Amino acid sequence: MEVAITKKFFQIVDIPDYRYPGNKDAIMNIDFNSVATDCDTKTISLLEAINILGINILNETDGKKTDSSKISMLSGIICDLAELAIATNKISQSAAYSSGYKDAENV
Questions:
Q1: In which domain of life is the source organism classified (predicted)?
Q2: DSSP code for 4
Q3: What is the pLDDT of residues 22-66, one digit of tens each?
Q4: In which element (H, E) is residue 62 found?
Q5: Cβ atoms of 57 and 81 closer than 8 Å
Q6: For the segment 61-93, what is each residue's pLDDT rounded down to a tens digit?
Q7: 11 belongs to a structural domain
């Protein structure tokens, strides 16, 4: 028996696809457009945070003696934030697609 292994957070994030409703009542109550907008905003915020941390790393290493533990900590935070940005982007894309599909179906 093969066991699925999840190595990244974004691999487990999923939003129901409107085209294939498992639970029609639950899917009908999802405002896919709001989910997409919210996740777009979160993705942008995460990318801005990654940018700020990257600038901090540059400043930390710019001609000074570097504190390797601080650099390691900031690098780990950047990796975690990047994973979250990938996840929020995945949710946003799925929700935007389902929103369009749902709107087209109800025309």
A1: Bacteria
A2: -
A3: 767 767 777 888 888 888 888 999 999 999 988 888 887 877 777
A4: none
A5: no
A6: 877 777 788 888 888 889 889 988 998 888 888
A7: no
Helices 68-105, 32-61: axis angle to 10 degrees equals 160
The pLDDT value recorded for residue 12 is 57
Backbone φ, ψ for residue 93 (5° rounding): -65, -45
Distance CA 107, CA 34 (A): 19
Tokens representing 9 are 């957070």
> What is the residue range of 79's domain?
46-107
Q: Structurally, how many domains does the chain consist of?
A: 1
Would residue 1 count as lying in a domain? no
How far, rounded to the nearest angstrom, does the alpha carbon of residue 107 sit from its chain's CA centroid? 30
d(CA 37, CA 31): 10
Residue 97 in any domain: the answer is yes
Q: What percent of the chain clears pLDDT 90, i.e. is strictly above it?
A: 10
Q: CB count, 10 Å around CB of 64?
A: 8
Q: State residue 10's pLDDT score.
A: 58
- Asked whether residue 107 carries a pLDDT value surpassing 80, the answer given is no
